[in-house]
Amino acid sequence: MTDDNEFEYDVVIVGAGVAGAMVAKRVTEGTDKRVLILEAGKGSGMTPEGYRSYVDHYYSSNAKVPNSPYPDNKNAPSANVLDLSDHDKSYLVQKGPFPFLSDYERARGGTTLHWLGTCLRMLPNDFQMQSKYGVAVDWPISYDELEPYYRQAEFEIGVSGDVVDQAYPGTGPDNCGYDPERFFGDGYEYPMEKIPQSYLDLRLAEAVEGLQVQIPGQSDPIDIFVASTPQGRNSVPRNGYEPVGMVGEPETGQRCEGNSSCTPICPVQAKYNALKTLNQIPADQLTILDQCVASTVLRDPDTNLINGIEYKHYEDADAPSQTTHVARGKIYVLAAHAIENAKLLLASDVANHSDQVGRNLMDHLVLLTWGLMPDNVGSFRGPGSTSGIPVFRDGDFRSDHSAFRVEIGNWGWNWAAGAPVTDVQHLVDTENLFGAHLRQRLAETVPRQFRIGWEVEQLPDAENRVTIDDQLLDQLGNHRPVIQYRVSDPERAAAAAAKRISDELFEYAGIEGHTAYDPQAPGYFTYPEDSGSASGYVVNGAGHLVGTHRMGFTRDDSVVDARQRSWDHLNLYLVGCGNMPTLGTSNPTLTAAALSLWAGDNILEDLD
Amino acid sequence: MLEKLRTLTQTIETKEDLWHYLNIAMEVELSTIPPYLCALYSIEPGSNQDSYNIIKSVVIEEMLHLTLAANVLNATGGSSKLNEPEFIPSYPTQLPDSDIKDGNGHFVVPLQPFSRAAIKAFMKIEHPGRPTDPPEAAGWHTIGQFYDGLMTGLVQLCERQSAAAVFDGDPALQIRPEQYYGAEGTIIVVTDGDPDQRLENAMNAMREIVHQGEGLDDSVFDGDRLPAKGTDADPVPAHFYRFEQILRGQYYAAGDVRERPTGAHFDVDWNAAYPMGDSPKAGDYPVGSEISNYLQSFNRAYVNMLDELQLAFTGHPERLREGIGRMYKLKYEMSSLMKIPSGDGKTTVGPSFQFVGN
Predict the structure, then answer these.
(1) Interchain proximity A254–B182, CB inside 8 Å
(2) Tens of pLDDT along A53-91?
(3) Which helix (H) or strand (E) segment is A590 a member of?
(4) What is the pLDDT of residues A191-201, one digit of tens each?
(5) Is the Cα torsion angle A161, A141, A130, A565 positive or negative in sign?
(6) B186 touches chain A (CB under 8 A)
(7) Residue B103 sits at the chain A interface (C-beta within 8 Å)
(8) Residues B57, A211: Cα–Cα separation, whole Å
(9) How far does B325 lie from chain A, in Å, by closest CA?
(10) How far is A252 from chain B (nearest CA, A)?
């Protein structure tokens, strides 16, 4: 690898994931700017052979967890949900009291390698929770200001969806009604037609027809209905949009073809990943250095500007031998995702006048409920989710408890119970079935399996934080993230409300409930019923980590300003989910992408 | 197939003649697909990725040719006959031979696994016409000459009857560009514009078929082929040369001339292919046997797919999506048949692509 110590780039970016890729693309498009990206992990996904090796690794993995296709890398370790019960093995140091349940991926392409692809926008009230509901904080920007960047992000990612389906509380004024011109802007349509809803979605939609439920904190009942979910997955294009296929093999992946393994990997790259954006940047304007882990953000004590990123390069992921270098640019951008960005800032002792770096770590707590539909609904086919029940994303109840998003799952009890593998194990080990009987029993139940994910918004809590400890280092000598984390009453109350609504919905729809929460599970907690006794619940991490270097109104209570620039260092930008002061009820990637494109525009302003 | 081509009249005098020619064109395109698919799905998974991608891209483009021909047919008021027994090719089939030294004037195209013989047969199918060959009345040397005859006939018909009278088909029947993906080329909506434009669209559609297949005169590449999407700008060779790359184990690069590729080399493992038997038939196996049932199930799936395509081409373009879904089903069934031993100790069964009635 070349030693670029002497060359000063226009922009140095840490992290080759979606946020870094969006900044790099925006800064180089139609300009003469030169960008360097430092990526901690490997760049294998950039060639079809390398990408297919990920697919093979996935096929041969025993546990199909989100990071299963991406080989362990001791020099750039990624959090792994399998390590939640094994504190020695875990990269994240879990101080508790509640485990932080999510993972992310450190490799070129980042977590978009394994994301599901759901692309929902945040709602206007998500940006003004304090003013509107008296909880959390307001953003220093509004939905309306971010809206043009949502459109751009939807075109950069390539989102399939129908605007007409996005009619639910929160998209109109005062939480009622639907105003497409306000929410999406006049005449807007997604670049591609919606991904067809699954047969399961359509059966469920019929089954919940006419159902209304109550939710604590809101007097009006809520109508239940099923709506298609916009997603970053190739479908029939509109208006001359050209779908982007596999990097290096562009005719592959031009449409979703139902491989049904989106998380953890789309074998044909019909799903968006950040490699596609990186691939669109002219080679003479972009240098990506893989296997280069940023270790310190260097600060000039006289000017208080950043004057370099020190990084460690390794050849072999399993061995600690390394060489140290410094990258220099006019502007520096940290795009290593919420936990790694915070960790790096703390390790470098920069950008933290506010003492908010690492704080306000938030995630979606996902309560799963599951059961059997009355008939065969063709489970385990198609993308992981093609529809949701979007009616709990906003409302007066948010003064009382968290909002939640309802994701309808197409993959049976896969996430909830490890199906269909566990079904086979159970029938063989416990019921001693084999041959035709085994096949028959599986055929009677597996295609009827159904699960819903109730994704509860977590509000910012200063005690939910990432810190570092000089005694707790990885193989390369970089800090491991030390996580203090808890789940509070607004979230627990919402999970309990969601469970009650789920029970009602299952009964109304004729779904045979099979939800069971194991007190030994890492995400187990109890919450009191009205009756006085407490019920147990298990939540899972959604992989939606945000908040650790939030934007805000003043330098005393936030890390970056509304332009996503550090209050403390005028040539340092932070991008990605860490900038988000609240999480709302949408998967945060689309919002992070929109914010990153905006940051790119701001960086160009600063450069010129 | 060959006999049918030889029955074609010398000139296109009426619209019925034109429709007959176009239906033959569709049958020609369709007839190439089962042999290509047998080669494609006999490749052992995990091997021969480059060859797999090449053959797959040609198959998808043959589907485009089928669709282009259907759009021309529909634009002139005709109807396809994709799922009628007499238009479904049987194998081995015979196609006109570009090399007439042996006097036969034809060559045999069986269903066979991925092999040098198969790739050479594919090159014969796509062989470019010699630049000085005039279109001939009987005894077409190449499929390209057949299309030349078709195009000449279409122009003459329009001169006789007027373009408006010829191109009076319903625009709602056209398959639209956004429904095609996965390989080079683009669907042409023949009914766009006034009648003279429609004639031009039809000519462009047929030129696209010929150029994609055989190339443009001396060029390895088909005309003004746009760069592939993304930042790769390598143009894509015509089918004949694409297959030749497999024989050579080397890609053509931009600017190359025929027989002198300068692109990257790639591995070809001729042994990594399931040894499907030559042109299997359900009747090769006892009636009611497992293999015979499996073959008939495949054949029914094949005909069902043709039914969907026929629906798509005759007024229900949205059915193309169902047709594509059935193509995936065919893929799984073909892959299974490729692995089932035929019982002779040497070959496997493979798919038979026969017509079965409902």
Answers:
(1) yes
(2) 999 999 999 888 999 999 999 999 999 888 887 777 899
(3) helix A589-607
(4) 999 999 999 99
(5) positive
(6) no
(7) no
(8) 49
(9) 9
(10) 6
